Records
---
Amino acid sequence: MVDPDARPVEARTGFIDAYLTELAHSVAHIDTAEDIVDEAADHLLFLADALEAAGRPRAEAETLAVARFGSAPLVARAHTAQAAMGSAVSTRSTRRAGLVMLLTVPVATVGIFSNTYGVAHSPGWRGTVHGSGAAFEGLALILLLMGLWGLRKRFGGLGGWGRGALILACAAPFIAAPFGWGAGGAFAVVLSVAMVLLLIGAWMTPVLPRTPIVLMSFGVVGTAAATVTVPWDQGPLALYLPGSLAFALGYLMLGWTMWNEPALDARSGSVPPPSLT
Amino acid sequence: MRPDLVRGNLDLLLLVIVGDGAGHGYAIIEELRQRSGGEIDLPEGTVYPALHRLERAGLLASSWDTSSGRRRRSYRVTAQGKKAATAKRHELSAFMNAVQRVIEGPTPGTVAGWT
């Protein structure tokens, strides 16, 4: 077939443009309508150009391209039906995980703020502030693990790296327990290693956005470097801020991405598949 | 070919074709038609929704670029998609073997009461 990209684009007859307008109306209820129309436009113009280059009159080339593509209502029904068929996982549940990810950061912030600033500035309420801060930090840890579980579930387990991260995260309490008073630090170290494994798995999954992964990786490495450089109870809090903020920002971005997906059940099939004839 | 037969196996066909290198939607559909000797000839616009669903499932990934002044989307198979294709291929192969055995009929002496 002649490569239509190698020759100048001929004047259009308007037939494809009219079809695309009708398609845009037909798929307007779908979130990705703009992408659907752009993809259809590229397909139709590519085919029409190729047919024209092969010797067909332009009007006939455009008509034939549209005829092969299928009517706008048929294509719109196919998109609606395929969306209703859902994906390999229920995004209805992973959307909730996205929401949990969005909640993690404010909960963790309250916990950390109470345990650092609050304890130092509220001597009369030291026990209460410390206790509530610790409770918020514990809750944030649970939310973090739930969010990461959802992230892993949404993207097919993230391969062997994701599986390794899950095993290590589950084993973290048992690995840390023998360290006595240092168990908290040991737990954090093991969890950080698990996080690194998870991020490697996420990086190797092409469907995930790169920016949040880079931010989270910087956050884990930056916080670990700060911890190694200065003991956690001797360094200023600001030392941990760049890493923590980068991690939190990347984590929020991933949570926002998952929360904004359309809610689909894996086995939902309420809309019958369209006839392909 | 009956549309329901194609629809039941379209995921596997698309994963294999994209995995073999066809990345642009038109190229994928054309490859599907040519490899099947023209037997699988779906309305081209109905293949894109299946590609989008496979992408949502994490089995395909896509990226946009600009060609001839138009936005163009290209697909590629993810690691998870390759695994899924292998599993679906084995599943289909086992099913076809089973159908073949049923069609060929029972071997004498293997069915109770057969004389």
---
Amino acid sequence: MQHVPKLYKLTETNISRVHHGFIFVKNLSKKEPSFILATDVGSTTTKARFFGKVGNEWKFLSSGEAPTTVEKPVEDVTMGIRNAVREVEELTGHQIIDYSSRELKFIMPYQGGKKGIDVYVSTSSAGGGLQMLVEGVVKTITAESAQRAALGAGAIVMDVLSVDDERDTYEKINTLRFLRPDIVLLAGGVDGGTKTHVLEMAEILAMAKPRPRFEIEFLLPVVYAGNKDAREEVKKILEENFDVRITENLRPAIETERVEPARDAILQLFMEHVMAHAPGYEKLKKLVSTSIMPTPAGEGMMVRKFSELKCVNSIGVGLGGATTNVYSCFDGRFLRTVSANLGMSYSIGNVLKEADVENAKRWVPFAVSAEEVMSIVYNKMIRPTTIPMALEDLVIEHALARESIKMAFNHHKYLARELKGLKKERTISDIFEEVKAEETYLDLFRINYIIGTGGLLSRAPRRSQSMMILMDAFQPVGFTSLVQDSVFMMPHLGVLSTIHPEIALEIFEKECLIYLGTVVAGAGRSKVGSEAAKITVEYNGGRKETLTLQFGKIIRLEIPHETEVKVTVSPTRDFNFGAGFGRSVSKTVRGGVVGVVFDGRGRPVYVPEDDKERFGMLLDWYASMNLYPKEKIEEWRSHL
Amino acid sequence: MKASKESFAYTPGLRVTPYTYVRRLRSLPLKGEILVNKGEHVNFDTVVARCCLEGMPHIVKVAELLNIDTEETMRYLLKKKGEPVKKGEPIAKYRALFGLVNKTVVSEVDGVVENINEITGHVTIREPSKFLELTAYIKGKVDEVIPNEAVVIGTYGAFIQGIIGFAGENFGELRVAVSNPQEVLDASMIAESDAGKVIVGGSLVTYEALERARKVKVKGIVAGGAKMEDLEKILKTRIGVAITGRENLEFTLILTEGFGKLPMSETAFQILKENEGRTAAVNGATQVRAGVLRPEIIIPLEKSGRRQEKEELGEGKMKVGSIVRIIRFPYFGAIGKVVELPIELNKIETESYVRVVKVELANGQVVTVPRANVEIIAE
């Protein structure tokens, strides 16, 4: 369904300022705060961000990080928050914590000078996040819509069951009996259609009686968002052992998907039940100025706002410790996916398992054995809060980051598809055999921006490293601008935007977004070293630069974000840069902290199998991108 | 450079203590029956509680099998809700055209008719319940009884947490097979007489040793490290996330340091050596996630006047003088003393700016490492 951005009536009094195409609207109904503290209680690290108004502008003042404390000896998330905030206090000299209280308490409101805050908000993905089980009738119709609704709420989907998922009933029951979800979403059937199949799925659930993750006595919540005519029967089947919540059908007609009511019901239950059971959350709930939000929900909110305000198509990625979250806003359609068990700390072992050691090693420009890679990766998995000290260690983590995003993006593309089952006025059971896999609607040539966030990307010592990770993982084509979250504050700003949207957007544009640059890449293949395209770069004032881009090479021009250049690409017949194979294309682009990058590696990126050839090529790319210190690149090159 | 005298650092909370009071909650997955009383002495294998696990439900699609309309199902059923059925016994029968068309649906399992759904035409048969018995796991005293749900067993003893383990609970006599924490445990060090024992190795347990342990039927192996590729071979699967305990391995394997050849911490090795010959409970279950679980070795001991170690290390207050262990390459496993805690962010080899700690190693070398890469082992 097409999303319509919220429209504001603009008047002279409510426009705060206009900047880079963003219109900042004042919220006249609330007293503006002076200092804001925001935290994200991640699965690995708790990140505190401190913002304040300096003169007339909102600034990011400082950050503090500490390991999330859900582990013994401190099973209380507020302890990790306290440690992260103490770091902010040490670095700024601003007193935030009320030390007269044994329990964590903040000095609120702001007391003047360097004392106190007005607002405290938080997101969280600790405690394993929100884990859901999804049931639908047809795998590619209601089960897929239900999956989108669950993912839209920021959930990790543990399993998706449907009548046609090729598992026998006893296998479904056996699977359900051992799952420990937080919430079940049950969907199926269009309004007025057949009830039999959705009741069958309810029956399976009732028989299996999966138990919730927390507490023996607690009734597992089930959100029913299926055929409205089956509501009473579903209730009857499930109410003895489940806490049944009824919402609108998420697929009221075969051609309509309406996931918002189900998503809202899930978020409501998340706040009521799941958060309440994680260690220390009861205390945290009393501290925040607005509801705690799942991290992916906060992150996605900012990706969506960015796309809507700029009127562009974009893809966002939140590379976390336990999960990798991908967001897309394409032609007004917003989609969020959370790939469980793909992440850079707790789940790094699984990234290696799923990607395979050889795939991870193809991004590493020096000889390393599979055993060494496994040792680094698996030791990180069991001690997830440690950070790389040696550069080689960092290179291996960055290789895994590319693979994690790549796999999460594949998952995302699977769900970024047109609604299935259209133009068929038959019963659902008739459609079973008519579903064919279709291509994603995400056309990379039409993606204007890729936005990266998450601890690893934000903490990458050089911005060029995060740009390269995003380039290798998404492999954009045509002209794509790459942006990243400066110090990982997108989830924080997402939750802040629910109560102070104007402040959140001001900080987002000025302090959060780092424009890495524009990548200009072509789809195609050729012989290494042969010409892929002729490129002309025209600067303001008439200066022109002509380049020849060879297949297998990267050329980077140091052009800042403030500078606009006109780029004309005339590809050979083997390459397509957006206008078709062999057809010229021109666009005006901006650079960034890394610059404008011409990527002649083809799509998919050509990585030689031979070690020596590959190391040489990787080192050329990394040198062009200024990815690592020159002396280190030379040291690696000397081993060739 | 500014420096603080103390700082809050996080310690993953791995405990290694020669004498403490250990309590273990033995909890039933469902409400059930508690078989012991408060104050009662129990052994490792004493059954302390049990509950009834509901049998597997089987949904029989009667209407579909008889090719009738769902609302007609009741007419053809031979069994009522609550009635027991035997495997092979007919539960529905359809007869038409004066007996020319005969269709029968039989039960594929022994059980009870739990539900008949007239809308879907399905009959649910539930298999008989099974008893789940819960043992004490450690030798000790029943400290607490939570009626119908759980008991808490307590004992004085040595307690060592590992970093990752495989397979669940076991117990056996401890035998230290190596002479020092650096030595590798290979197959030749495991004898036939080690059946039923918990064998302690040094820095690495080889694949051959793991295979030998399986053949000899040892109850457990405790070592500093193991190679991941060897573990894959023995477990016949690759691990994705650190959530373990249900592997199909005949013995419990506990790694105290991690993956690779990593000498066991001197303290842990000494405790195991001191207690050689005593019976230890071992559990490989690990969960490096929320509500974290680490694998453990518990050696129950008689109550003595020995000084009891504090229950927990608290919230990880790191001070100048704290003894820490470095937990990431290139100094993995090195133990040293904190000599400085700079407040400012420092640039490390990766070019990252992070909070660091300066640690003096045993050889006098002072190294600067990220605070995130140390764990406090003594304040």
---
Amino acid sequence: MPITNNKLTFSEYQENFSDIHPPFETVEGASVEANRCLFCYDAPCMKSCPTSIDVPKFIKQITTDNIKGSAHTIFSANIMGGGCSKVCPVEKLCEGACVYNLLEEKPISIARLQRYSTDQAIEQKWQLFKRKPFTGKKVAVVGAGPAGLSCAHVLSREGVDITVYEKEQKGGGLMTYGIAAYKVTPEFCEEEVDYITSLGGIEILYGRELGKDISLVELQNQYDAVFLAIGVGLTRELGIKGEKLEGVEDAISFIYNLRTNPYNNIQVGDKVVVIGMGMTAIDAATQAKRLGAKEVTLVYRRTQDEMPCTEAELNIAKLDGCKIIWLAAPKKILGKHGKVSGLMCDVMQLGAPDTSGRRSPESTGETFTLEVDMIIKATGQLPFEKLVSYNELQNRNGKITIDENGITNWAKVFAGGDCVNGGKEVVDAVQAGKDAAKGILNLIMKTD
Amino acid sequence: MADISSNFLGIKSPNPYWLASAPPTDKKINVLRAFEAGWGGVVWKTLGTQVKNVSSRYSAVDYHGSRVMGFNNIELISDRPLHINLREIREVLKEFPDRAMIVSLMADNSRESWQELIKQVEDTGAHGLELNFGCPHGMTERGMGAAVGQDPEIARMVVEWVMEAATIPVITKLTPNVHSVVPAGKACVEAGTNALSLINTIQSVTGVDLDTLVPNPNVAGKSAFGGYCGPAVKPIALKMLTTIAQNPITRQVPVSGIGGISTWKDAVEFMLLGASNVQVCTAAMKHGFRIIEDLCEGLNNWMDEKGFSTLDDFIGKSVPTLTNWEDLDINYHIVANINQDKCIHCGLCYIACEDTSHQSINLAYGKPYNTYSIKEEECVGCNLCKLVCPVEDCITMVEQRKGPEYLNWKEYQRLGLPLNDH
Ligand SMILES: Cc1cc2nc3c(=O)[nH]c(=O)nc-3n(C[C@H](O)[C@H](O)[C@H](O)COP(=O)(O)OP(=O)(O)OC[C@H]3O[C@@H](n4cnc5c(N)ncnc54)[C@H](O)[C@@H]3O)c2cc1C
Ligand SMILES: Cc1cc2nc3c(=O)[nH]c(=O)nc-3n(C[C@H](O)[C@H](O)[C@H](O)COP(=O)(O)O)c2cc1C
């Protein structure tokens, strides 16, 4: 069974990758939902948003036909409020905290309402912010992902000029290269980046990689401050036999390819196994299925109680027809003629809780083998440890360490987002960018 | 099953719901549909001299995503020829003899015009007449409608002319566009009207279009003051009704209650405050005649639950409970109580009390859910928190009397008790 591309027709691809959370089609739809909002005080939804978007306020503004004001409320807390409305795991954030849950009623569709306002702002290119006069200060940002762009936007608003160094050819970071295609389109990601930079004062230099095209010392010397927002890299190795066989892929590269090429160019097996049960694993599995894989199986060494993905995400995979094998740990990848042909797994059981409080899986000694032609590894992304340690940045397993002001062990060099937290959500990265901007402003605007 | 049939001045109808004089009652086709749907009676759209209407006649006030909380019109009395109206009234009466047929009238301002009109209408076999002293627009400029109802002496005179000629019951419909409806009501009763009805519409401007900057309804770039009705006016109508139900002269005649009635509950409230039956316009214009089903069923079920077997068992029952402020018991004291099991932590009670009332609610920070509790010693029992709370019976007001005995304001002053406790 060869791994091939072009398994489906054009319209099948289109359907499989269409928007999973469709927007409100009409003013009425948005208005009915917005009017359902109770306009809570010190609202639980707002407190559950890492960027503290004033949710009741922006929803109220939809009811008063003040969509510009609504978009401004969102963007002033989260400049990626548009993207977040499509990709945030809201069931564990704002919508999960909505007081309607306590009445056993459907929570307010906060994400859809947020999308309603931000879509209009981005489509119609509303200029909702004005830069303060140029302060004479210049800051370098490394990485045009959510953390970098959020930081850049806050700083530019305050009259700081920003240069963003980005190794890829497009901005948005994992928003553009990592997140499932049925959540955001490449066009949207590009528009969002353009919308953010349309403020002025933000120049993105594409194809410029820190450590290759430019060094940290140079940046430190040329700018008043530097913000590192380089995210994290590929999935960690499994460290088992057969990992180099053809047909064993890293989830991040698999998704990267999928997000940067036409769907009919992406090779996918007939019998695919995805290893892991995080958000990336779910995305890899569902998208492999949507590309035409006949059978997709997720294998995870623990049980549903310990899985890192949310229930909502698990349900997407289940609805897509992905199979799940709990308590199965990959032991050995089998091959034929240099190509993957099977995956042998240990059958696990749960033992005592580990340091993270989760019960550690232990082998029962039994094994089973799955016949496969493609294996996608999604067992957690690894930080850019080489780059970090080469630059002698203080770190924990490659995750850059920062102090309470967001600063690293290098003077004037700040860091935030996935490269610090090891990989969370877009909304966390946006907040990290805001926090860093605050630290940077405190430093560079100090009048002494 | 309770008996919800109604007898108003001897005019019988299977239920106490009449359609008010307005577009729903302006021609045979509507009225037949209304009777088929089950309405107890109609007050036929006001007849008088031939008029001409403009196009673009209605506007509304929406609230919190709900349409037509208040409704406004700049229509005149019937714009159809009198003889057609009279013929159709006769035809409807033949088809539905068991339903009340009242005809609304607004004649030119002379004895002859009124008496001539009455004669023609009585010829149809209609059961009663309603004098329209209330239309706030278009007609007043011609010395009719509200212009008559606003001046008790003119109203008295017109009612006297009418009573000289009328042989069927006469209801006089009052305008609310006065500081009190009692003077005109009294004059009409003294002049012999058999009943009163209220309210007609309240003069209004429902809003201004923020693109064209023209108030609505927009008639070729201009607008005119209209008449306001619908749910928004109900509290005003209830107050006016109560003043009529309490005045020793006006309370001698039955009253037909009108203004913002949309549900059986509204209707019951009107009747509790003295209306013998009720009339409905806006609710029917918004939803059609089918609302009559729940109006009747809801009323019936409520009466069964309360043990009322006829409408007369409860008509006017709440009138004596509306008293003067200075007769209220100052020793009565209530404080709010939040049921923590029901609380959904929305904070609406807190912010209302903290910003605009008596700072009597305590906020204990929590992420994401705060806990709110009442500072009983600060609470004046204003009800605000309970009113804004979105959860039924989550906030209740608990009685904590200041003293066992009834003590009103006059007594309070006489005893020289301390005034300021804050
Ligand atoms: C498969 C997958 C699915 C996900 N799904 C979701 C989701 O549905 N919802 C959600 O909220 N989050 C999701 N996430 C997480 C989210 O994408 C990240 O948390 C977020 O993008 C982190 O932002 P960041 O700016 O810190 O890093 P990134 O988005 O990774 O951005 C880092 C940027 O730095 C650039 N860069 C890296 N190294 C260098 C260098 N040396 N020189 C110059 N530039 C460099 C990169 O090209 C990139 O543009 C997902 C992640 C993955 C992997
Ligand atoms: C469009 C329209 C036309 C009306 N025309 C008359 C009328 O001709 N004669 C009259 O006495 N009242 C007229 N009214 C007033 C109603 O009969 C009624 O008194 C008023 O609308 C309040 O009741 P509601 O709140 O149920 O609508 C009219 C009301 C509306 C909305």
